[in-house]
Amino acid sequence: MRALIFLFFIGCFTLIACNHHRVQQQPVVNIPKALEDHSASHKLVSKRGPDELVESLYSELAEHDAGLKQLEAALDALDQSKEEAAGSFQQFDAKSQSYYKAADQHMNTISDSLLKDKIRKLVEEHLAKYKAITEKHQELLKAIDVKTTKLADLHTVLKVVKTLPVIETYQKDNRPGTASLESYSKKQDGAIEDINKMTH
Questions:
Q1: pLDDT at 35 (0 to 100)
Q2: Helix and strand element counts for the chain (H, E)
Q3: b/e burial code for range 144-180 (CB count within 10 A of at least 16 → b)
Q4: How many Å apart are CA 183 and CA 12, to the nearest integer?
Q5: Domain map of the chain by residue range?
Q6: Is residue 32 helix, strand or coil?
Q7: Nearest-CA neighbor of 73 among 89, 61, 62, 86?
Q8: 61 with 166: CB under 8 angstroms?
Q9: Residue-wise burial string across 96-120, b where 16 or more C-beta atoms lie within 10 A, e elsewhere
């Protein structure tokens, strides 16, 4: 009798161990935080619009991808250095342009028309010289603006290209079945039939 009880317990333990092992063997589907229904990022997406989901997914990818993380750090550094590179000239140019506007206002107060024309010509000649010596600066600023736009476009393309496989995997692994929709559709059919019976 004891031997039977002992064999029974061994069988139970073996069954539990096998089931436990089987549970551990099941693949765990990793859903990105941005796609979890109750996550803070889901609430953020709802508030800010659907485009934020791309940003959220990309940010999550960049956290775990060394290459993307390095690229994002380089782009941040590039943005900061742009201010340092262009800031000094832009400040210089703003002061110069402000001076010419003020000079023009002063010229308008001169009552002698010949003197006014003479001083206007002098200021215009000076302004032409200023434009000539800062022409290269202006061309470089325009080129920088064009490249800034191109970088922004490429960055957007990168985010979409990198997150498309993520949303595709999510769709593949988490697509609900049609059973609940079919069941609800049948209930609607039943309600329609009941109403039809009552109205005829």
A1: 80
A2: 7, 0
A3: eeeeeeeeeeeeeeebeebbeebbeebeeeeeeeeee
A4: 39
A5: 49-173
A6: coil
A7: 62
A8: yes
A9: eeeeeeebeeeeeeeeeeeeeeeee
- What pLDDT score was predicted for residue 51? 55
pLDDT below 70 — which residues of the chain?
Answer: 1-29, 37-51
In one-letter notation, the amino acid at residue 24 is Q
Own/partner contacts of 56-62, CB < 8 Å, gap of 24 or more, are: 57/32, 57/163, 57/166, 57/167, 58/159, 58/162, 58/163, 60/32, 60/33, 60/34, 61/162, 61/163, 61/166
Determine the Cα–Cα distance for residues 165 and 112; give it in Å rounded to an integer. 74
Looking at residue 84, its pLDDT comes to 86
Give the pTM: 0.67
Cα–Cα distance measured from residue 174 to residue 26, given in angstroms and rounded to the nearest whole number:
15
Looking at residue 171, its amino acid is Q
User: Does residue 104 contact residue 124 with C-beta atoms inside 8 Å?
Assistant: no
Angstrom CA distances, 111 to 105, 116, 177, 184, stand at: 13, 7, 86, 87
Residue whose tokens read 């003197």? 115
- Digit-coded pLDDT (tens) for 3-32: 444 444 444 445 454 444 443 444 445 777
Angular region, 36: left φ>0, alpha ψ -120 to 50, beta rest: beta
Strands (E), the chain: none
